[in-house]
């Protein structure tokens, strides 16, 4: 029925992560990557706003880097894009946007 679609007819789920990954202690990020692969169907899209990119050691927000996202997503996602994004002055060069497709 239209209100309760069969799992075989669902469209890929898309999601975004905006300042959630950076709030998670680095030791727990593997759980984040696993959960993203559970909730996003094949060919679904995940958009990540990667912030704060840098070298600070305290948090939250905890330091992130493009390599951190690859570590937790590459097993189940293809990286389609990582690029600079429009930011306000305080965040310039501290954030990027990533687009990932579920394998």
Number of helices: 2
Helix fraction, binned, reads: 10-25%
How large a portion of the residues is in β-strands, by DSSP E? Answer: 15-25%
Number of strands: 4
How far the N terminus sits from the C terminus, by CA atoms, comes to 28 Å
Mean pLDDT, all residues: 87
Structural class: alpha+beta
Any idea how many domains? 1
Biggest sheet overview? 4 strands, mixed
Strand numbers in spatial order across the main sheet: 1-2-4-3
Q: CATH top level?
A: Alpha Beta
If you compute it from the alpha carbons, what radius of gyration comes out, rounded to the nearest whole angstrom? 15 Å
CATH homologous superfamily descriptor: Vaccinia Virus protein VP39
CATH architecture title: 3-Layer(aba) Sandwich
Report the CATH topology name: Rossmann fold
Residue runs with pLDDT of under 50 for 5 or more positions:
1-6
Q: What is the string of helix and strand elements? A: EHEHEE
| Outline | globular
Q: TL;DR of this structure?
A:
With 103 residues, this protein is α+β, with helices and mostly antiparallel strands. It has 2 helices and 4 strands; from the N terminus they run E-H-E-H-E-E.
Task: Please explain how this structure is put together.
With 103 residues, the chain is an alpha+beta fold. It has a single domain (15-102), classed as 3-Layer(aba) Sandwich (Rossmann fold). It has helices spanning 29-39, 66-73; strands spanning 15-18, 45-50, 77-84, 96-102. The longest helix has 11 residues, at 29-39. It starts with 14 loop residues before the first strand and ends with a strand.
